[in-house]
Amino acid sequence: MHIPRILPIKKELERKSLLLLGPRQTGKSTLIRHQVRADHVYNLLHADVFQRLSARPSLIRESLTPKTKLFVIDEIQKLPSLMDEVHSMIEEHRIRFLLTGSSARKIKRSHTSLLGGRAAIRRLFPFVFPELNDFNLTRVLHFGSIPSIYLSRHPWQDLKDYVGTYLKEEILAEALTRKIESFSRFLVTAAVSNTRILNFEEIGRDAQVPSRTVREYFKLLEDTLMGSLLEPFRKGKSRKTVAKAKFYFFDIGVANALTDQKEFSEHSDVFGRAFEHLIFNELNAFRHYYDKSFPLTFWQNYSRQEVDFILGDSIAIEVKSTQLAHEKHLKGLRAIADTMKLKRAILVTRDPQKRKVGNVQIIPWHMFLEDLWAGRMVP
How far is 209 from 200, CA to CA, in rounded Å? Predict the structure, then answer.
């Protein structure tokens, strides 16, 4: 079953070469297959292809013909030395390249930089709201939206296998850390801390690793595209706000699999955090897909009054999984309104219809996502 994606890589390639980054199984190869026609495709996950190109990178250049217009190289981070050849061919022959990668770590360290304007950089995320005609909220909150898993008949087993594959292929195979046991413990602890303000010392104690190692491990998760840090909002009249970041895994199901949360009630804390996680993932994907530069942050003061997301410096969004919002759910939005001037204060819930309480708009989650992807939430 093919579900069209909203990222227009064909249009991007008409302008310049493209580096497409995304975690494993987010659909990079499927997207390419359905949007572009390449003259040559090299998949570095195939052992024979990897061996031939690692021994002789010039094979790419030698396959060039007068009619060649587009090369595709899958998982370029496995052989970053190819970047030299790619760079040279772009400069000398005006050839377009579509490169994919599931880790930015080795690409960043490559001494030849395609990131200096020779190639556009785009991110591919799991399925997002406008890509699914029948968006199943319960399924997404339990199993996430990685394409192969969302469509699977056995999503939980596939999620557990996915986590194991990540450890084996991204961490062990790429030699990103020498202590896989320590990293495995950290990974579970990081998933427990998902959507929460990070305390590196506490996470280090739970994972039995030094706090400085915890910082390195979170950087590793970012570099392998497994998640994103959400920084605190630092503007406004009041400086009495927290200075620590939050972390969100790139997929809700992956976080659930790491913490073994297969089943949970819609009234549970796990459900509420997964609901918040969904809204973050949609906001984050929207910014990347439509190249929006507005900051995405969160706000919390030392009285623990919190607003989940701040778009730019003018839209405050609180997320609650309740089906009937009350005044108690508005405390964070009321508090931030005392410290800064807002264009909009929004509470995203599972309420059946839109309504307004004072200056706060209460918006059902699906209507909020419709507005977001229609561009009506840009600050």
Answer: 10
* Lookup: tokens for 1: 């079953």
Please write the tens of the pLDDT for every residue from 162-184: 998 877 677 766 555 667 888 88
Both tokens of 371, joined, read 């507005």
Rounded to two decimals, the pTM is 0.93
Most confident residue range from 23-27, 64-68, 183-187, 274-278: 274-278
CA 280 to chain centre: 9
Integer Cα distance of 46 and 170 in angstroms: 15
Domains in the chain: ranges and CATH: 9-123 (3.40.50.300), 129-373 (no CATH)
At residue 363, the 3 state secondary structure works out as: strand
Residue 66 and residue 95 in contact, taking contact as beta carbons nearer than 8 Å? no
User: Please, which residues bridge with residue 306 across strands?
Assistant: 300
**Nearest one of 238, 226, 2, 19 to 127, comparing CA atoms:** 2
Helices (H), the chain: 9-13, 28-35, 47-55, 59-62, 82-93, 105-109, 137-143, 147-150, 155-165, 180-192, 200-207, 211-223, 252-258, 269-289, 331-337, 365-373
**Span 224-278, pLDDT tens digits:** 899 999 999 987 554 555 678 999 999 999 999 999 999 999 999 999 999 999 9
How are strands ordered across the β-sheet holding 119-123? Answer: 40-43, 70-74, 96-101, 17-21, 119-123
Axis-axis angle for helices 180-192, 200-207 (nearest 10): 130
Q: What is the pLDDT of residues 94-117, one digit of tens each?
A: 889 999 998 877 776 654 555 567
274 membership: H or E segment, kind and range: helix 269-289
Contacts of 181 (CB under 8 A, 6+ apart): none
